[in-house]
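Encode chain A's predicted structure.
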Amino acid sequence: MPGSHEVTRRDFVKVVAGFLGALIGGVIAVPAVGYVLGPSLQGKSSKQHEIEAGPLENYPEGVPVLFSFNITKVNGWERTVNSHGVFIIRSGSEVKVLSNVCTHLSCRVKWREDLNEYICPCHDASFSKEGGIVKGPQPRPLDELQSEVRDGIVFIHFAEGKKE
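Encoded structure for chain A:
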């Protein structure tokens, strides 16, 4: 018959192999593209944590006390534990909570009772007891975290994520 075209075995195998290859490629590509683009599509989100810091009487009046805690983050099969610290300063039945992270290059500051200041060991920055800048290259005071005292227990509201 003129104009009729017979499909040979070789042509059939080529078509089936091409179809299966495209199908397998698509099955692999769709999740891979989602994995790569997913974080950028989710936007910035900071997860809030309420951390129980213990009874109010554990914190002496007017003395910054370092309180350390861990936050576990699970991303698929990956489990990450991050250590955080804050200074809790009690004033009567109220508390002020300051981050122990220097606002210059994120080094951990230490309270020096003899100087009555927080000292950053990285670039000789220092902060007042209330977190204000005393000297150094830091661009802003220590970050203050929201907190509350409920039934004699101190709670810290900690937001994960980078400050703007």
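The CA atoms of residues 48 and 154 lie 16 Å apart.
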